[in-house]
Amino acid sequence: MDYVKAFIIGGLICAAVQILMDNTKLMPGRIMVILVCLGALLGAVGVYEPFAKWAGAGATVPLIGFGNTLVKGIKEAVDKDGFIGIFKGGFTAASVGVSAALIFSYIASWVFKPKMKV
């Protein structure tokens, strides 16, 4: 049953983003930034964790989860290292995910031979 809930929550997030794309002049890059900032804001005020626990992977996988990961990393680094943690905490917390995305997309570019659209 948890898989169904996660699927529904993830689908609702995707549907909301699609509606936003269809009904505004916002470009996909700006919408991605909005989602990351929304996750960071929800994480900063303490709302994201209970929501993610309830919704499961449907809330943690999209870009909203990335924003929350950045905020959690910054909070932990500030507690540990003080002011300098503001600058290094987000990078430390998200480094594995970003590295994996870069490595796997590079491998995919070898397999699928992408071409630039003109």
Task: Tell me briefly what this model is.
The protein is mainly α. The protein contains 6 helices and no strands.
Overview of the structural elements:
It is a single chain. The model has no long low-confidence stretch (mean pLDDT 87). The chain has six helices and no strands. It is mainly alpha-helical and 118 residues long. Helix 2 (28-44) packs across helix 5 (63-81). The radius of gyration is 17 Å and the shape is globular. Helices cover 83% and strands 0% of the residues. It has one domain (2-112).
Chart the SSEs and their pairings.
Layout (H helix, E strand, L loop, with lengths): L1 H22 L4 H17 L3 H8 L1 H4 L2 H19 L3 H28 L6
Helix pairs in contact: 2-5, 5-6
Structural descriptors:
0% strand, globular, single chain, 83% helix, 6 helices, mainly alpha, 118 residues
